[in-house]
Amino acid sequence: MNRSVDYGTRQIAFSLDRRARKTMDITVDPQGDVVVVAPIDTPEEDIAARVRQRGRWIVSQQRYFSQFRPRSTPRQWVFGETHLYLGRQHRLRIGDASALPSVHRSPGVLLVNGVEFNDSRQLQRIVLAWYRQRATELFSLRLHHCIQRFDDRSITPDSMTIRVMNSRWASMSTAGRLSINPLLVRARVSEIDYVITHELVHRAHPHHGPEFWAMLEAVMPDHAIRKMRLERMLS
């Protein structure tokens, strides 16, 4: 059931789930959605009051998660334009239009074959396919590296998939499935490691409570710096 309460000049919308329990719990998921789990017999006014009481924390969590949502300057997908790969700008150069679609990287350059000079859609398809290919290879290696930071190997995900997500760089399901956005391959390796490590901690602690932050701090003391760099680079 969906509800909302006034909080200052804004409204906080939330979904309500009543269960046979004694306590009320409020969470904010990575999409910024607020979920309230309350005892079956809790009055509506008590639930609304609790949401208002937690309003400052809710807004803070929503702002926090918004920082992880991909925000990229719209691209024209034309030759001569620059695109990031592993934190460095690379200029798109035209290769052999009659060759099979492919991308060859050299310092500062992505040479694209199999596309005519003015075919922006085909250029985009080829480069994004190359991003996905590189992401699949690189993220598997970085996942193995990041797992070594933990003493408890139970944080190892059951599977890893590469899929485009409109509002997130990565996610860890409660079933242990790690999903990573292929566009994260535009970031530096240190920031890629941050995103993966952040999600591995979620394997042990699904919510951003004290235990989550304590574990992240223990395995990656500079996580805040890496997060800031990621935001600056891909905002």
Automatic annotation (TrEMBL):
What positions does the domain YgjP-like metallopeptidase occupy?
Answer: 22-232
Pfam families given in the database record: YgjP-like (PF01863)
Organism of origin: Agreia bicolorata
Matching entries from CDD domains are given as: M48_yhfN_like
Q: Which Gene3D superfamilies match?
A: Metalloproteases ('zincins'), catalytic domain (3.30.2010.10)
PANTHER family registered for this protein in UniProt: UNCHARACTERIZED PROTEIN YGJP (PTHR30399), UTP PYROPHOSPHATASE (PTHR30399:SF1)
Give the protein name, as stated in the record.
YgjP-like metallopeptidase domain-containing protein
